[in-house]
Write a structure and sequence with these properties.
The structure holds two protein chains of two kinds. Chain A is mostly helical. Chain A has one helix and no strands. Chain A has one helix at 3-24. By secondary structure, chain B is mostly beta strands. Chain B folds into two domains: 5-208, no CATH class; 254-392, Jelly Rolls (Sandwich). Chain B is built from four helices and 23 strands. In chain B, helix 3 (226-248) packs antiparallel against helix 4. The longest helix of chain B has 23 residues, at 226-248. The chains are: A mainly alpha, B mainly beta. Chain A binds chain B through residues 2, 4-5, 8-9, 11-13, 15-16, 19-20, 22-36, 39, 44-49, and chain B through 221-223, 226, 229-230, 233-234, 236-237, 240-241, 244-245, 248-249, 279-283, 297, 299, 313-318, 320, 322, 324, 326, 331, 333-334, 340-345, 359, 361-362, 394-397, 400-401, 404-405, 408-409.
Chain lengths: 49, 419
């Protein structure tokens, strides 16, 4: 296995580990505790054209 | 022997020396790159260019000794055929005449124009008792010119070039509208050329760009199969991330609730269930489905209220669905289904509340108007069915991990195939 392949395998393992830790602690940066920009404000309606 | 002659470039006024005076027909000004006709005493401008062609591995004017003859580089051409790019240098010695030095793919060849034409029989030629096999036959374009030449040449010239090989020795045939020329090319080492001339390595022509499939298989400093393994490893890692998220996000315990909201009325509060978070931290997912309204939206402000501490965790959702017709025909937008993900909910029992308010687009229904679908009702309403569950799957996190995983082999693939 080349050095670059070893580094990439370690990178994959790190991401899997980070994903496991974030799931275990119930954390995600993509939750809905804040209103998104598209749903903020008082007026709503279609964005079609 | 010829005496060098100085001429003035009619384009930029620069003073240029003609080294092979009497033989040189075309001269490319070293200052502005303009092509000059120097066959006669009156120097005539052929094509004016704004910039001189630069970035050649050896610039005209350089002198060096090869095969015991001192040569002067008097002209340089950059040429290409398909994706292959190379440089040709015209060498001149008053007693020995002209020769070529060709730089391609980091290697050098020394060329001598043949005076005796090889016998051509299609896929092979015979020259001085030896046979040369056809290797390549393609159009060659001249992309840059600098220095002086004994024939008329210019940027954009094209010829049909064929290469015949016998071992590492080659015969090159170039066919233009006016003539056919043959050149013998023999390989010479980089060390020889660098001993003779000052070579700018950074301006040496690069090897032709491999096609995508070739680039996928090969990369400098890597084993051929590494990139394939990288993509495969990224795929495995992404699958593991999916499984890990599915397994570690549980246990999944759900509570169902229902609410009815009047369109255009004030926001109303509803309790839609009770859930228990059993792990120290867990995500909570609230999904909502509505009846099939049209051109309405429902704002949903959720609150998870901890029964023990009365602390509240807030989140937001919206259900909206619109239809209409425009010049392109009928359109629809939105969904009668929505999902809200709440992260890092601590262990505890929570009552789930929602403040729901519904409105119409482009305006709320007129108060007191009769809803055709419900003529005996008090007003238009939207029915909502909620399901609150512990656990959840963050697709945003999943796709972020996918980007981080595949960006590495993706960048390597791009790096190999960049221009």
């Amino acid at each position: 296995m080349t050095k670059r392949m070893t580094l990439f395998t370690a990178w994959c393992a790190l991401l899997v580990l980070m994903s496991a830790i974030s799931t275990w602690y119930g954390w995600t940066p993509f939750s809905d505790e804040e209103r998104s920009g598209s749903t903020s404000g008082y007026y709503r309606g279609p964005t079609h054209k | 022997m010829t005496e060098p002659r100085a001429v003035t470039c009619p384009s930029c006024g620069g003073s240029i020396e003609i080294r092979a005076a009497g033989y040189t027909v075309t001269l490319a000004c070293r200052y502005c790159g303009s092509l000059l006709d120097v066959a006669n005493e009156d120097v005539r401008l052929i094509t004016a260019y704004r910039r001189a062609a630069k970035n050649f591995a050896i610039m005209p004017g350089a002198r060096g000794t090869l095969f015991d003859v001192e040569w002067e580089v008097i002209g340089a051409l950059r040429r290409r055929s398909g994706s292959a790019v190379w440089q040709e240098f015209l060498l001149f010695n008053p007693y020995s005449g002209y020769r070529w030095l060709v730089a391609a793919d980091g290697e050098w060849q020394f060329g001598t124009m043949l005076l005796d034409r090889p016998e051509d029989d299609g896929m092979a030629v015979s020259w001085r008792g030896r046979s040369f096999t056809l290797e390549d036959d393609a159009e060659i374009e001249t992309t840059a010119v600098v220095g002086e030449f004994y024939w008329r040449t210019a940027r954009g010239d094209t010829v049909q070039g064929a290469t015949f090989a016998n071992g590492r020795e080659q015969l090159s045939r170039e066919t233009s509208a006016d003539e056919v020329t043959w050149t013998q090319l023999i390989p010479i080492t980089t060390e020889w050329v660098e001993e003779a001339f000052t070579v700018e390595e950074r301006h040496m022509p690069r090897a032709p760009r491999p096609d995508l499939a070739e680039g996928f298989r090969k990369a400098p400093g890597m084993e051929e199969s590494d990139l394939g393994f990288m993509f495969f490893s990224a795929m495995i890692a992404l699958f593991l991330i999916f499984v890990v998220q599915m397994l570690l996000s549980g246990p999944r315990v759900c509570a169902d609730g229902r609410a009815t909201v009047e369109v255009g009325a004030a926001t109303s509060a509803h309790r839609i269930g009770t859930i228990e978070v059993r792990r120290p931290w867990q995500m909570v997912t609230i999904t909502v489905d509505s009846d099939s309204f049209n051109n309405r939206w429902v704002d949903l402000d959720y609150s998870l209220v901890n029964r023990k501490t009365q602390q509240s965790i807030d989140a937001y959702g919206i259900v909206e669905f619109y239809t209409g017709t425009d010049s392109d025909g009928p359109w629809s937008e939105g969904s009668h289904h929505a999902e809200t993900l709440i992260s890092q909910v601590p262990r505890g029992t929570y009552d789930v509340f929602v403040d729901a308010g519904s409105h119409g687009w482009p305006s709320d229904p007129v108060p007191g108007s009769i809803d055709p679908a419900n003529p005996w009702g008090s007003g238009e309403t939207v029915a909502l069915w909620f399901r609150s569950c512990t656990g959840g799957f963050s697709w945003g996190m999943f796709w972020l991990m996918a980007v981080l995983l595949f960006s590495v082999p993706g960048v390597i693939l791009w790096w190999r195939n960049r221009d």
